[in-house]
Amino acid sequence: MKKYTTLLFLAVTITMIFAPVLPANAKDKIIIPENMEELDLSNRLEVFFDQDGLTEEQILQKSYEFVPLSNTNPSGDISGTIYWLKMDLTNASVDSRKLLLEIKKPHLSSVTLYTLKDDRLVEEDTIGYRYPFDIRNYKHRNLVFTLHLQPKASTAHFLKIETDSFFQAPVSLWEPIAFSEANYMNQSILGIFYGIMFAMIIYNTFLFFSLKEKSYLYYILFVSGFTMMQAIWDGVAFQFVWGNFPWWALRSNSFFIIWSSLFALLFAKYFLQLKINAPVLNKIVTIFNTLCALCLVLPFFLKIGTMTMISTVMATIFVLFLIAIAIKVRLRTREAKFYLSAWALLFIGVLLNILAAFKIVPLTNLTLFAPKVGAVVEVLVLSLGLADKIKRMRKEKEHETKKYYAQTLLQNAFKQMSVMDELEPLSKQGITCLMEITHFEKGFYLSKDGNKWRVISSVNLPAELEKFYVEQYVSIQDGCSPGFNILDDSTLTVPISCQSHTGRFVIWSPLEEADLSLMESFLPAFIEQFTALIVQKDDFQSLKSSAMHDHLTKMLNRRYFLEKATELYIESEPASLLLIDIDHFKRINDTYGHLIGDQAIVFAGNLIKKVLMGLGIVGRFGGEEFIVFLEKTNQDHALEWADLLLEAFRREGLHLDSGASIYLTVSIGFYSSHPFSLLTIDEMIQLADEQLYRAKRNGRNQVAVC
Fold first, then answer.
1. What structural domains does the chain harbor?
2. Which pick of 141, 347, 556, 672 has the fewest CB atoms within 10 Å?
3. Which residues does 17 contact at the CB level (< 8 Å), separation at least 6?
4. pLDDT cut 90: percent of the chain above it
5. Which residues are registered as beta bridge partners of 275?
């Protein structure tokens, strides 16, 4: 970088040699009009690159070597060069004026204002990140100096600028009242920006504590770091947070650039599940994240300029990773849609800012504040994505709760119906069950005798209106499809049919407060069980059993397994619990298809039952996971059985119709209770689950135990 600065200096020198040499007083002066609010001086300043640390007297002798700042464009340089800016200000007014000189880049380490008086430079004020904020005469987030101009007079002012990071110096001259008005507007905009960011941080923090989702934690840390990074660039952090700690102020920018890159990628990893959707990219991102984590300590040891360049390069790599993730993940999931939409504007804003840092695009208000606009959009859209995820999770949870309620209600209803021998009380109990689930108010049950329908039972149906309702709905029945029907948004008909009986439930609500969300999942079971009760009462027990077992493997489902295991656990001492997971199951689905995947699950379940069923109870825990509770089995015996199970999977394969065979492997984690153990079944499952993940981390196809 020093070499780069030297070449730049030589280029300026050569230009000055071949350019016409003008006396200092021949250069254009900056005339300040009487009616002025803001005057942009950025392109009207003259600059001199001081690499030798010249004194004020020597700088005056170099006045002829100052060149227009617009011709040099040093923005983005990192070097040990001292930048001298010169401006000749002419007050066109007949009155003396007090104006404000603002440098809109607050990160500069040291800026000293000089006024040319009696052929010497007189120091007016020195401020910057190297000095405490409280020493500033004008308490503002940017660097602001006060200028006193005499009427109808010209005055030369010099700015001596030293920076440990990028050199950027957008300079404006302000009339104080206009500056206050603009500052009020800018402060309001910044207040809105940081208010939104902090509100989103707090909002997502509550979500994290509520859901315990790791991606939310990384999102919070990223948004917090990015917000602090913006506060550093805006000068707000130095003004309000660490203004009395210049040492940290000079290093904070690099620290939070790396911090934001680290946690943004960690968020992407977990939110988009890169380990599953892009395993190779996930490994590369993991390596880069490790490097970022190590680099977080570098700002405390390296030179500030070196660290600034490192952090800028890492930020550039981070943006490239975002592009790679976007290309790889695309719009496969709802999370990806929200993620890519949210990052689009932020990506453009950050890219523009980085390009400006490398001088590929000019430094303007757009490139300077583009990350801020993009950040607000990104945070809001991602929050909508998180809210959408929460909404879906709540709906799923609500649906599962309703489903559990319906199943419980169904079980209780059929438990009562199982002891009923007559069709009337049986059907009346069925009406009550349907009404409780749907929240309908009235209902009756019709039975077909030959070509005639008659009411067998009714609930909340006045006797004098019975004939009317029967005639009204019987006329509809013959035109109904064989399945259940929802008529006029408030009426539900449920057919019951077997060899010896044809009937139909009719329930309705005149207030149209129906809850039909569970009908598709609930009614087939209701129809099946009610029909079975009519055909044969003894079938009720088998129907109840079907509700307890997984439809694919015919093993106990999770809920009933936990109930049964809890009952046995109270009476069993010691006891062991095994969690078994098929290794690389996704690979089987991807290679052979989901039908073969289902066969693999059934095969694994049958093999587990074959080896362990006589020792305890076996259930399907979910997906490709199984759970086994072994009564009166200590850790040593449980480990022996687990090893036998591993050997059985190695020995027996799943034979496909094509003649090929698939040999599955499983990972097993288990926990054995000790005498007088106070752990619950749920706690044993948690401990066994931890061992299961340890077995997977250690290479799979093995058993892990505490």
1. 2-174 (2.60.40.2380), 191-392 (1.20.1070), 418-538 (3.30.450.40), 549-705 (3.30.70.270)
2. 347
3. none
4. 16
5. none
Tens digits of residue pLDDT in 5-55: 333 323 323 223 223 333 333 356 788 888 888 888 888 888 898 888 888
The whole-angstrom separation of Cα 207 and Cα 258 is 25
- Measured between alpha carbons, how far is 706 from 704 in angstroms, rounded to an integer? 7
Distance CA 213, CA 206 (A): 11
- Reported as a single tens digit per residue, the pLDDT across 387-402 is 676 677 677 777 677 7
Alpha-carbon distances, residue 334 vs 97, 214, 223, 339, 388 (angstroms) = 60, 18, 21, 9, 9
Token pair 């007559």: residue: 422
How far, CA to CA in Å, does 502 sit from each of 426, 484, 494, 523?
Answer: 15, 14, 11, 17
- DSSP for 55-90 reads -HHHHHHTGGG-EEHHHH--TT--SSPEEEEEEEEE
Nearest Cα neighbor of 122 from 48, 56, 45, 30 is 56
Tens digits of residue pLDDT in 353-394: 777 766 677 766 667 667 777 778 777 787 777 667 667 767
- Contact by Cβ (8 Å): 337, 154: no
| pLDDT attached to residue 283 | 92
Best-predicted range by mean pLDDT among 179-193, 472-486, 594-608? 594-608
Helices (H) and strands (E) in the chain, counts: 21, 23
Q: What is the pLDDT of residues 638-669, one digit of tens each?
A: 898 989 999 999 999 888 888 888 899 999 99
- HSE-CB for 314 with a 13 A CA cutoff: 31
Which whole-number Å values give the CA distances from 588 to 278, 593, 598, 658, in the listed order?
Answer: 17, 7, 10, 15
Q: Please give the structure tokens belonging to residue 148.
A: 């006193």
Residues whose CB falls within 8 Å of the CB of residue 395, separated by 6 or more in sequence, listed in order: none
Taking CA atoms, 639 is separated from 469, 600, 634, 636, in Å, by 66, 24, 9, 5
Positive or negative, the CA dihedral 360, 361, 365, 371 is negative
**pLDDT above 70 (res 63):** yes
